[in-house]
Each structure stands twice: as C-alpha cells, then as structure tokens.
Amino acid sequence: MVTINVNKFKCGYCGACVSVCPAGALELVETWIEVNESCTSCGICAKICPVGAIEVKK
Amino acid sequence: MKNEYDVVVIGAGPAGSITAKTAAEKGLSVLLIEKRQEIGDPVRCAEGVSKVWLRKHIEPDHRWICADVKGSRIFAPDGTMVEMAEEIAGGEVGYVLERKIFDRALAYEASKAGVEVMVKTRATGLIIENGFIKGVNVSHLGQSYDIKAKIVIGADGVESKVGRWAGIDTSIKPADIETCAQYLMSGTGIDQEYCYFYLGNEVAPAGYVWIFPKGNDMANVGIGILGNKSGNGKHAIDYLNDFVNDKYPDAKILEMDVGGVPVSGSIERTIANGLMLVGDAARQSDPITGGGIINAMEAGKIAGEVAYNAISRNDVSTDSLNEYEVKWRETIGREIDNSLIVKNTFTKFSDKELNSLGHSLKGVNFSSMSLLDLLYALFKANKKLLWELRVLFKTVVKYELDFEK
Ligand SMILES: Cc1cc2nc3c(=O)[nH]c(=O)nc-3n(C[C@H](O)[C@H](O)[C@H](O)COP(=O)(O)OP(=O)(O)OC[C@H]3O[C@@H](n4cnc5c(N)ncnc54)[C@H](O)[C@@H]3O)c2cc1C
Ligand code: SF4
Ligand code: SF4
Hints:
The structure holds 2 protein chains of 2 kinds.
Chain A lengths: L3 E3 L9 H5 L5 E3 L4 E3 L8 H5 L5 E3 L2
Antiparallel strand pairs in A: 1-4, 2-3
Chain B lengths: L3 E7 L3 H12 L4 E4 L14 E3 H5 L9 E5 L1 E5 L5 E5 L8 E4 L1 H14 L3 E3 L2 E9 L2 E9 L2 E12 L7 H4 L11 E10 L7 E6 L8 E6 L4 E9 L9 H12 L4 E11 L8 E2 L2 E3 L15 H21 L4 H13 L1 H15 L4 H10 L10 H11 L8 H10 L6
Parallel strand pairs in B: 1-2, 1-11, 2-8, 5-13, 11-18
Antiparallel strand pairs in B: 3-7, 4-7, 5-6, 9-10, 10-11, 12-15, 12-16, 13-14, 14-15, 17-18
Helix pairs in contact in B: 1-3, 1-6, 6-7
C-alpha cells in the first residue's frame, strides 16, 4: 500500500527525506522518489522535506 | 565495465572521487559509479570552502571558483553585526565554488588516475557472502549487473543506502538534520568579498540564513533550519521566501537548490567487513557550519589509502579497516565532536540570548576568521550562558586543531 504522496512537481530530488526515513522505505532513483511497502506513515519525511512536497495518507 | 575490481566506489561527489583517485594512484583497479546523468547536478550546497584545506586536495582553478572571500558578517536577530575579516596580507580564507564544475573536475582527476567512471549507474544492493561485502548490484540504464569488489565504498551522500544495506543504521533523526533551501540570485547588491549570516528563531529556527557571493552581482541566498522545527505548515522554502521578499524584493532568482545536511555528529560505526562509508554517507559534515566538502575529501583520502593497505595485507575485515575508523576520528572526527557541542548550545538560545551575545561583541575587531576565536571571545564575555563550551577550548588547545574549515 502506498501511504505517502510525493508531489513530483514540487520535489527538488535532494534525498533529505530518504535520509530520515526510519523504515528505509524511500529511494531517490534519479530524479524521482520511490516508496515501498515498508512505509509506516510516521510522517517524518513530510515534516523535514525542505519544500513540503510530501503528504502522508493516513 | 568489468565484472570485478579491487574497489567499487558508490557516488561521485567529493568523497567518492577523492577516495577513487587515491586508491587508483596506489595502483588499485577502481570503478566509480554515479546514479545521476550529470555529476554535481542538481547542486545541494552553498559552495563555501576554506582555501587552505581545499589546496590539500586540488589546485584551485578559475573555472570552478566564483568568488574570493575575505570575511564574514554575522547578524544577531536585532540586527547587531559582528564582523570577522582576515588581514588581506594573508590572502587566505575562503572561496565560493561552482559545485557543478568542481565535482566534475574531481571526477576528471579520478579518471586521469585510472579510475573507470560510470554515470546513470545506481547501486541497488550489496553482494554479501559469509558476513563479508563482496560487491555491488547495480542498475545501468534499467539493466541489472553484479560487480565483484574486494572493498566497497559507500560515498552515496545524505540519501545513503549503502550503510543500511550493510547493517549500519545511518537514518537521521529530525533534530539531527538541517533542512535547507537556497536561491541563486542576481541583484542583491551584497559586498562580494563577504559571507553573510543571519541568526534568529523567526528568520531561521535553530539555523541561519546565509548569503554567499557568487561573482558579478550574484549570490547564493539560502536557509537551513533544524528538522524538528520544520513542518506544521512551514518548511525551509517558506522561511526563505519570507526572508527574500522582505530583504531583496527586487532581486531575481536564477536557480533553486534544496537539500539536507546531517548535523548528528559522528555516528557509531562507519565500517563493515569489506566496506567503508565516507563523506555525508558517514554523516561527517560539520554540525555547526554544515560544511561537508572538506571533511568528505579528507575522509576520502584516508579511505583510499586504507583500501590500499588492507588489500595489500589481504585482509579487508573490520579489524583491518579499523585503520580508517581510527584515522578519521582522530582528525576530522575531533572537530565534528567539538562542533556538536557548539550546535547543542546554540540551537537552544532564544532571540534575546542571541542578541545579548551579539551585543557583547560590539566593537570587537576580529582580524581572524577562526570560528574558535569568535567562540572564545563570546565565551569570555558570557561565561554563564556558554559554560558548556568550556571543554572546547581545552581540547582544541591540547590537540592544536585548526577549528576553522
Ligand atoms: C543547502 C546545503 C548547503 C551546503 N553548504 C555547504 C557549504 O557551503 N560548504 C560545505 O563544505 N558544505 C556544504 N554543504 C554540505 C556538502 O554539500 C556535503 O557535505 C558534500 O556534498 C558531501 O559530499 P559527499 O561526496 O559525501 O556527498 P555528495 O556530494 O552528496 O555526493 C553523493 C553522490 O552519490 C550519488 N549516489 C547516491 N546514491 C547512489 C547510488 N545508490 N548509486 C550511485 N550513486 C549514488 C549521488 O547522486 C551523489 O552524486 C551543504 C549542503 C546543503 C544541503
Ligand atoms: S525531501 Fe522533498 S524535495 Fe527532497 S527528495 Fe524528498 S520529497 Fe523531494
Ligand atoms: S512516512 Fe515515515 S516510514 Fe513512510 S516514507 Fe515517510 S519517513 Fe518513511
């Protein structure tokens, strides 16, 4: 289940969200973020994203 | 691409390129992979660097130097300014780089030393046998390959996965990352010989705004705030927009950069059997300045040499690679630890306290750009407020460290 939404038009593909994800659910591929099923909807990535590109779907 | 190398380096930032170059110069076969199609782009950096330290790794080249800086101007929340300027006679202090060109120049140096470089090539996992890392799984233009290596180097920056794959938890807590946004702007009218810093919980909670000259009338105008202060409707970019709209409503935005800087201080372990982490992947950036270019290069140099020593000994176990762990902790590690003390003290201050610190230095003339000199002057005038910093001066004097980078 995909639990977060990354607005690819806002995202600056910096990888900051990847570094804080405790579950290791995120990956910065080249110019986009991929989320896998290990996401726990903790919301940390959404909090620290410099541009507010991430939304958590609860 | 061959299917076996002495060393495979993941990530072609300053850490990866210097590690690869150093290992190749020693005679090892080295592959350097980078997932991006253009090394160095997009930029996630304010591009400030100390001249003396830079020169230890590469001869300065006008093609990637934008500005020559002789001092800093630091502003307390109420506007009180503290100026630190180096005597021009010394001619040292800092440069502001063009990272896109600089990073590629470092990769070029590596390639000249014999390193094989591959872009658009992403590490997707590690080959692990009997508790030893034996190589990397990579994806190149959508095709998967397995590449064997005696030693794998994780130089994959802030978003590093290599450590986690090897069982080292490198995930960063929100209080241990500066979340940053920056515009390259024209028309700010700043003095191109100075770096500017603005402190205050309103402009930049537990962080600061920086303005670094980029030549002509351009400048990097950026902000970093501590991750635990971000969110709740306001992110780094919103603080930056507020600052810029207020201060430079007529300046123009030529580029936008975003990123995260680890400010956790040294992590517990940066090696595994057959693996070393370097640079931001090892969280080696400075917790107070956020500077990571020099530390990444210093660590890369050590890792390249240790890779050679370990392979020569025919022993790539953690016992053997511990040489890296010890060497980086003795050098850049000490400064990282000191800066962590400063970070933990300063991120707690209210604007009132920051203002009073600023006032205590009014009229003090700094003829040196050393952060330590500044801190010492602050400490002398505000012993009570800054009591936690006392250990700093002891350690630094004892180890005769150059605290400024
Ligand atoms: C906004 C901001 C401002 C900063 N300002 C300064 C400053 O003024 N001065 C300073 O010294 N430092 C500054 N820093 C810190 C500095 O940018 C970093 O510390 C430095 O870039 C670290 O170098 P590195 O080689 O470790 O990592 P990076 O430069 O991040 O390089 C890592 C490379 O690895 C690649 N990679 C990642 N994963 C993979 C994979 N799976 N496969 C293949 N390749 C991969 C990435 O694409 C990247 O090219 C700043 C950082 C930010 C975010
Ligand atoms: S932190 Fe935000 S801008 Fe950076 S890669 Fe993640 S979603 Fe994109
Ligand atoms: S919500 Fe939490 S677990 Fe899910 S991707 Fe973001 S940081 Fe990771």
